[in-house]
Amino acid sequence: MSSHIFLALTNPAAGREQDFNDWYDNHHLSEVVNHLPGFVSGRRYRRSEHQRPGESPPWKYLAVYRVETDDLVAFHEDQLKVFNSRPGLMTPHSASCDPDHAAWVYTPISGEIMRQTG
User: Fold this and answer.
1) What is the pTM of this model?
2) What's the pLDDT at 111?
3) What pLDDT score was predicted for residue 12?
4) From the CA atom positions of the chain, what is the Rg in Å?
5) How far apart are CA 6 and CA 66, in angstroms?
6) Which residues of the chain have pLDDT under 70?
7) Domain ranges of the chain
8) How much is the pLDDT for 118?
9) Read out DSSP for the chain?
10) Residue 61 buriedness (CB in 10 A; 0-12 / 13-18 / 19+)
11) Residue 53's CB: how many other CB atoms inside 10 A?
12) At the topology level of CATH, where does 3-106 sit?
């Protein structure tokens, strides 16, 4: 199986940050990993207050999922099949998530380089 990363960039709806984080931490992250084919792990991040001068991404939160599949076209099609065949499988965010979000899959093109010690 080939390994990929799936990046989900999100913001909470205005005034709903606590609800958004509760939903993501207590439902969404684990539901994606446990119910959607190809997802094998996930982890959330919050945008650091310390960015390069003059730069700040528009999204406050990032979820990074590890995906394993040899067929990304089928991976995306399988997500739709699950959603269409199993309504209610995923806990809805109840409008706590801002509709402006982004999600992309990236495939590694090199091995991971680690810092050399010694």
Assistant:
1) 0.92
2) 94
3) 97
4) 16
5) 6
6) none
7) 3-106
8) 79
9) --EEEEEEEE-BPTT-HHHHHHHIIIIIHHHHHHHSTTEEEEEEEE--S--STT---S-SEEEEEEEE-S-HHHHHHHHHHHHHHSTTSS---TT-B-S--EEEEE---SPPP-----
10) buried
11) 5
12) Alpha-Beta Plaits (3.30.70)
